[in-house]
Amino acid sequence: MKVRRCVVALILFLLSGATLVAGACTQVFSAISFSGAQYPVQSTLNYPPPIVSGGISLNLEFHTVMDAVVSVSGVSLRYTVDNQPVGPVLTDNFASILDTTQIPDGTHSLSVLYINEPATLWPCYTFLGRQYSFVVSNSGRAITGPQLLPVVAPLAGYGPVLPQYADSIAFPGSQSHPISHPFPAQIIAPAGGVTPSDLWSEPLLFSTSNTGESIPSYWQLRNGSIVEDPLFSSLIGCDDLRQPRWGFDVAGPIWEQRKGHFDGLQDDVSASSYATFTPNPDGPGFYGISMDGRLFLLGTDGSIRTLTGWVTNRNVIPLHYEDGSIPLASVHGQQTLVGNFDAQFYFPTDLAVDPTNHSHIFVADMNNHRVALVDLSQSPPVISTYAGVTGHAGYLNGPAATSLFNQPSSIAIASDRTIYVADAENGLIRKIDPSGNVTTLVGLGPGYEPANNVIAAAPLTYAPRTTVPFASAFINYPNALRFDSKGNLVLAETVSQAIRYVDLTAQTVTTIAQFSNVGNTFGEQVWLDVDRNGNIGEKDDIIASLVTGKQNGLYRVPITGTTAIPLPTITTHSTNPLASGHTRQNQMPWTSGPWSVAIDDQEGRLVVSGVQSAGVTSLRLGQSTDPAFRLQLADYTAGKNVWLTGTVPNFPFGSRPAFAAVHGYEGHSALGSVLNFDDMIAMTDAQLGTYLQNGADGSVPRPELTGNDLRNVIYYIRRTTTGGDLATPAPDNPDQTTPAITTIAASQNGSTGATVTWTTNKPTLGFVAWGTTSGTYFGWSPLESGYSTAHSLSPANLPAGQQIYFVVRAKDQAGNQSVSAEQGLPLR
Questions:
Q1: Which residues, in sequence order, are CB contacts of 709 under 8 Å at separation 6+?
Q2: pTM of the prediction?
Q3: How do strand 26-34 and strand 125-128 relate by DSSP bridges?
């Protein structure tokens, strides 16, 4: 299991089954143990799906979404395999044996079905069954060909909680490719030093931002079995560069290499979110370097081409990235190492193009404690150590070959090829002259730099707003280093959370802005770039990014500084739930957990990578051809809820799988065998409606999805894609009359079942919701499969010998709903 520090500042947007349970109750989930191994609720803490055979022991605990254990009693349940109950009803003691010899070999889903829940508690709980994938292999052979695979939508610990109902998709037997849709790149004229009131946000790698969520993907387990499991772009839930005990900077690059990133075009491409960028001086696009040691060229059309480092063969199913028992050598067996290295990169954090030779790129190879040189004029490119001793941390000036650094995090190169290095753990800015001699520019260095908790407690003591001469200036865990138009340096420090101005002529350091009044002991990522040419606003404006949950956004700071805390955002923003298009109208952040920012040297654009966005976003100057902002918020929100719950409002949460489980929260998956939003918007409304009603490449039809509800989800799909401002929802259905429910009758059907009949005055589709406490309904019957006026449903798995309370809910084809008065049925 990966080490993780919970980022408690992230807001949880939890969807609840409000029809059935009190929305204010805490959601708790069945956290199952397989053969004594306790699995968490959060997928980001998860092991890969287990491979089992014979009889396996099951048990469970109840966990919150943040994996806190909850102690409750009076719960009765049955385990389920592929959504079907197996084994006896269990109350409070949930130890059981699952005989897998009765289950076909292959991948399946395991969860629970609640039979009885305790009467109202305080605090009250909503009980949900967490779905887990597992692989049965009694034959000892992996199933690798075409097959149905469960999709279980595990929890992330942030973002919406999707219903825990397993869908299934048809795996074609090989790695499929999503249809690529190259982005219509434009050359954007620079701003000429004029600050825009609005920018246009364009997700580059995918047609949607996928902000903060996971990407459905195929993976191969260590025995060759194929599973679907989401790829989470954030690594291990933290980004603590200056807190070694969390292991982020040590283990992170290896985990990122395991994610199987590959080259391609928009919608069929993959890159680590932990990447920094510098503009390509010879044309549009940016050079990028990512934590996994991959140097690549990013096009403004959303394409990526690896220049050096590991790149995955796109035609293989990658080995599961969360399985640390798979040797890294096996992972690399599915990849190609591009370039001739004297030592492979180990968490490179920045790069800069040699202004005297654009074929040379210098890299701050942080965990190798060196500055590396990439020579792109060679084929393949040659990567060598330029300064520092690979793998040896220390502090030593002198010739580049014998000099020592301690986690160099950023570099900036002057026009004469003088290189400035942010030497993070030494607390220095170092200088490498064109002849290769290393000296210290500013900072007191090892032995004088206070501990990170000391700096964080009093940041202005060590990064004062007064001007400090080089001889007495602290440099506090420097992280990002860039030039302004005068050739002076602007510095971002992680622990002090300060932006500082380094005047090379006056030889002084001044704090000109703060992200926060307090520092950050963990040293979470901050980054910046300086608009030296006024391409994205006023000349020398600093554009800064902050990954932490405190602010989590992009900021504009004048080179003269600001005392505003929080910092001014790059443009004004609103609260509309969109991450592309007009920044002035949409919510911030426009990317989630921004890791870095880079301003184009020729165009009016910048790029930003987000560790929870699985991609790169371009923010560019608005153009006259951009559509005006347009959003029908109520219809959009209603459609998004249908997408995330998999069914219409007021129908049971968990009665359907989420569409998002198969296609991604915002319509992007890496499966290739299902459609993404860019593919769906090519359909007519009628075609898209039929596609959704038939299950949208999943196995569960949605006959209830008609009328205004269908209209809303179609609008959500069209509006979410880039350029969706042009989309408009279809008109409301003129029928606004709610159906009438009459002649309800109920009878017992065996010891744990019932039959409920009723009639409606117009064709409707509905279900029976039930519980064992008046007014609270945690169970439900199957949903009807079609619309009629005469209805009969048979709820099963009721608690024997209990008084059952139930209601009938009916929905007509226009979307109007009604619910009956509560009924009672004692089970004898």
A1: 638, 642, 648, 649, 815
A2: 0.93
A3: parallel
CA–CA dist 598, 277 (Å, integer): 6
Interatomic CA distance for residues 137 and 143, integer angstroms: 9
Q: Alpha-carbon distance 481 to 658, whole Å?
A: 44
Tell me, rounded to whole angstroms, the distance of Cα 809 from its chain centroid.
35
pLDDT bracket for residue 573 (50, 70, 90)? confident
CA–CA dist 613, 666 (Å, integer): 11
Which of 489, 357, 366 lies closest to 434 in space, CA to CA? 357
Most distant pair of Cα atoms in the chain: their distance: 93
Give dist(CA 142, CA 225) in Å, integer: 5
Q: What is the mean pLDDT of residues 547-555?
A: 73
Crossing angle of helices 633-645 and 707-720, in 10° steps, is 100
How many beta carbons lie within 10 A of that of residue 27, not counting itself? 21
Q: Terminal CA-to-CA distance of the chain, rounded, Å? A: 48
Residue 228 CA neighbour count, 13 Å, CB half: 34
Packed helices 685-693 and 707-720: angle between N→C axes, nearest 10 degrees: 110
Q: Give the pLDDT score at 161.
A: 86
pLDDT of residue 549: 60
Let me know: does 357 contact 417? Beta carbons within 8 Å. Answer: no
Helices (H), 180-306: 248-257
Percent over 90 (pLDDT), the chain:
78
Structure tokens at 211: 């902000």
Conformation bin of residue 472: beta by default, left when phi > 0, alpha when psi is -120 to 50: alpha
Say if CB 538 and CB 530 are below 8 A apart.
no
- Tokens 């289950």 belong to 103
pLDDT of residue 249: 79
Cα–Cα distance measured from residue 281 to residue 298, given in angstroms and rounded to the nearest whole number: 13
Q: Which two tokens stand for residue 532?
A: 């030296």
Write the DSSP assignment of 479-517 as a string of letters.
Answer: EEEEE-TTS-EEEEETTT-EEEEEETTTTEEEEEEES-S
The burial class, CB within 10 Å (0-12 / 13-18 / 19+), for 821 is: exposed
Give the H or E element holding residue 78: strand 76-81
Report the chain's C-alpha Rg in angstroms. 28
Q: In whole angstroms, what is the distance from residue 420 CA to residue 441 CA?
A: 8
Give the mean pLDDT of 76-86. 96
Q: Is 42 exposed, middle or buried (0-12, 13-18, 19+ CB in 10 A)?
A: buried
Distance (Å, rounded) from C-alpha 670 to C-alpha 659? 15
The answer to whether the CB of 351 falls within 8 A of the CB of 396 is: no
3-state secondary structure of 680: helix
Please name the amino acid found at residue 310.
W
Mean pLDDT of the region 270-294 = 95
Strand 304-312 to 335-338 pairing: antiparallel
What gap in Å lies between CA 132 and CA 776, rounded to an integer?
A: 27
Helices (H), 415-505: 452-457, 459-462
Which two structure tokens, joined as six digits, stand for 392?
């040896």
Contacts of 625 (CB under 8 A, 6+ apart): none
